[in-house]
Design a protein that fits this description.
It contains 14 helices and no strands. The chain has 293 residues and is mainly alpha-helical.
């Protein structure tokens, strides 16, 4: 019955239109995932019927890649719709609670903490429209990811890029996505190192006088500092960044300055030594290479 029903889906409902309709009508997540799967299957069937010269598996990979781009662009659009008077911090807490309760991925230790039990008691009826929409697309993205309906490497890379490039007011939501997809990010050495760089750069930005005079940004800075500390303890190797050490080394030391943890201090000293050692080696190598050339 479901296979026959899938053939009756309107052809015009696809990409951003599909996501918009699911959000606006608050379609149950399981049904929305099934809907997306059917639309994808119909589009792939249509490509094959038109006599696409591509191999079937290549066509499917291309479709998932483009669909993932549509999802990330839609998430960015929803994030930017956040009203200025809305508290991004409290909003992200409510979204995290709802997303976690519907997130099919297995839980794992996350250095960014977890939503408080108080926030889980919030109801949709008391939320602003933006919070409801943001909560929905977050849950939908998590389920699409777990069902293999997104290009996972591309989506995880977007999570990092979003943290790097988002507006300062959007940081709480950007960190929320890092926490939700933490398991996938830490499996990649490159993504882990890029996450370390992104956190250090955002901490450096929040340390500037432009933001330090506003309490809300001081709170953001404390959250980024806490995330840096926990991620540093979890994966110190990700902070071995000799090519960026001259610029970001002092930022890391500043972020961990107030931490009274003997183990963390020992690990920090080791990471500093490794970065400085690699930096010196790299300089010597380039000098030797220059002489030979």
């Amino acid at each position: 019955p479901l296979r026959r029903l899938s053939r009756t889906i309107p052809h015009g409902t696809r990409n951003r239109s599909l996501l918009e309709q699911c959000c606006n009508k608050n379609i149950p997540i399981a049904r929305a995932v099934w809907f997306a799967r059917c639309v994808g299957a119909n589009e792939l069937r249509g490509l094959k019927r038109k006599g696409s010269t591509q191999v079937g598996s290549v066509t499917e990979v291309q479709w998932i890649f483009e669909w993932t781009e549509q999802v990330t662009e839609f998430i960015e659009k929803v994030i930017k719709e956040c009203p200025e008077e809305s508290s991004a911090t409290s909003a992200s807490a409510n979204i995290a609670a709802a997303a976690s309760s519907n997130n099919p991925m297995k839980p794992a230790p996350k250095p960014f903490g977890s939503a408080s039990s108080a926030s889980t008691k919030s109801t949709l009826s008391n939320s602003q429209p933006w919070k409801v929409k943001m909560e929905y697309i977050t849950r939908l993205a998590a389920n699409l990811f777990s069902e293999g309906l997104l290009d996972k490497p591309l989506f995880l890379k977007w999570c990092i890029v979003n943290l790097q490039k988002c507006r300062i007011e959007e940081l709480p939501v950007a960190i929320l996505f890092i926490r939700l997809f933490w398991d996938g990010i830490v499996q990649s050495r490159l993504l882990s190192q890029n996450l370390a760089l992104a956190l250090l750069e955002r901490f450096s930005e929040l340390s500037s006088p432009t933001f330090s005079k506003y309490q809300v940004f001081v709170t953001f800075k404390e959250k980024v500092s806490e995330a840096l500390f926990n991620f540093f303890i979890f994966s110190p190797d990700s902070f071995v960044i000799p090519q960026y050490w001259k610029k970001l080394g002092p930022v890391l030391i500043e972020a961990l300055k107030g931490i009274n943890d003997e183990v963390a201090q020992q690990v920090l000293e080791l990471v500093c030594m490794r970065n400085e050692s690699f930096s010196v080696t790299d300089v010597k190598f380039h000098k030797i290479l220059g002489q030979k050339l």
